[in-house]
């Protein structure tokens, strides 16, 4: 009886202890032995995320400032350059000594403070020598007819437009010696009185002879050489060897490389060109299509001295232009046009009138 009462009392004490312990609150986090483990395994707090974001933007700012400083000091300004401070949100005029140079088609442009135009060989030699002494890059540029920007350089350019004289004409050998800055049209007009002309040249004649030779320009005709193959000898102004003359007899290996050297082997100062007798050409222009050209291309190349194709984009139409010398015995061919001048221009007049009526209200 007493044993049963003791057991009952013990069970009641255990039950009371259970109820009391269940009502005790859990210990604080810093007294919990698993606290450190849980904190290490949890995600970063918001403060550390903000610090990472701040460090990221500080890095971007440092990169931007460094790039700006590098760009500023890489621009080849001389020590005595006239700097005009820009004003924020206001237009700052360009310095007076800053030249804007673009190619002929206007697709490439560069600004430079070094754009030199010598008037004679001695001035050109001094320019190349000084640039070499100062370790300064300089690039020869002509009329800029190349569609790319190969002749443009911010560090500095030299242009021979003022060295444009015909130095010597040999009527018997049919050769002409010129300064490299003379333009093709000026050269053709100048040797015309001597009964000479160039073997081949492009339809655009604004190029300087030095430039048209260095880029390997050409005209039309399968049997006609490009401009660089018409050169007999050249005078180059180089930074290391000074002024040298190259030809098939004098330093032939360098001569063949320098004929189409893109200005990389020196500045072309003078050129001797093999010419031909002056002659007249008869031009025949007609409209064709791609299939007909594929069929007759080889035949037309053999039959005509000059031939070129002008494809009209987004169509099958091709304008064919043939040019052949006039025979000294037969004279120019007698050609009767299919249409009179008024008939040939009638469709163009009608188109102009229609466009005028259609778009007059938009002006």
Automatic annotation (TrEMBL):
Annotated NCBIfam families: GLDHase (TIGR01676)
Pfam families named in the record: ALO, FAD_binding_4
GO molecular function terms noted in the UniProt entry: D-arabinono-1,4-lactone oxidase activity; FAD binding; galactonolactone dehydrogenase activity
Residues annotated as domain FAD-binding PCMH-type: 107-278
Regions that span the bilayer: 57-75
BP terms from Gene Ontology: L-ascorbic acid biosynthetic process
Keyword Membrane: yes
UniProt cofactor(s): FAD
UniProt keyword terms in alphabetical order: Membrane, Oxidoreductase, Transmembrane, Transmembrane helix
Protein name according to UniProt: FAD-binding PCMH-type domain-containing protein
Gene Ontology cellular component annotations, sorted alphabetically: membrane
Organism ancestry: Eukaryota, Viridiplantae, Streptophyta, Embryophyta, Tracheophyta
Record pathway: Cofactor biosynthesis; L-ascorbate biosynthesis
Keyword Protein biosynthesis: no
């Amino acid at each position: 009886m007493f044993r049963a009462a003791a057991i009952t009392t013990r069970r009641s004490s255990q039950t009371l202890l259970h109820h009391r312990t269940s009502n005790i609150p859990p210990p604080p986090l810093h007294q919990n032995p698993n606290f450190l483990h849980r904190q290490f395994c949890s995600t970063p707090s918001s403060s550390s995320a903000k610090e990472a974001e701040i460090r990221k933007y500080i890095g971007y700012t440092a990169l931007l400032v460094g790039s700006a400083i590098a760009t500023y000091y890489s621009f080849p300004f001389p020590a005595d350059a006239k700097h005009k401070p820009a004003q924020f949100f206001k237009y700052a005029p360009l310095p007076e000594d800053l030249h804007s140079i673009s190619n002929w088609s206007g697709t490439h442009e560069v600004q430079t403070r070094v754009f030199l135009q010598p008037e004679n060989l001695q001035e050109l030699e001094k320019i190349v020598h000084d640039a070499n002494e100062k370790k300064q890059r300089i690039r020869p540029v002509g009329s800029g007819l190349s569609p790319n920007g190969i002749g443009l350089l911010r560090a500095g350019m030299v242009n021979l437009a003022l060295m444009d004289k015909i130095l010597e004409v040999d009527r018997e050998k049919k050769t002409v010696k010129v300064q490299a800055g003379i333009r093709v049209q000026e050269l053709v007009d100048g040797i015309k009185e001597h009964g000479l002309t160039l073997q081949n040249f492009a339809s655009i004649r604004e190029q300087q002879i030095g430039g048209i030779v260095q880029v390997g320009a050409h005209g039309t005709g399968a049997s006609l050489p490009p401009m660089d193959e018409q050169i007999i000898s050249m005078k180059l102004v180089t930074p290391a060897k000074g002024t040298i003359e190259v030809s098939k007899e004098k330093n032939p290996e360098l001569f063949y490389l320098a004929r189409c050297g893109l200005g990389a082997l020196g500045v072309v100062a003078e050129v001797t060109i093999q010419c031909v007798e002056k002659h007249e050409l008869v031009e025949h222009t007609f409209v064709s299509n791609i299939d007909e050209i594929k069929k007759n291309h080889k035949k037309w190349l053999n039959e005509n001295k000059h031939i070129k194709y002008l494809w009209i984009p987004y169509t099958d139409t091709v304008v064919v232009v043939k040019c052949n010398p006039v025979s000294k015995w037969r004279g120019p061919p007698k050609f009767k046009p299919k249409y009179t001048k008024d008939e040939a221009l009638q469709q163009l007049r009608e188109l102009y009138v229609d466009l005028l009526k259609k778009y007059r209200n938009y002006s």
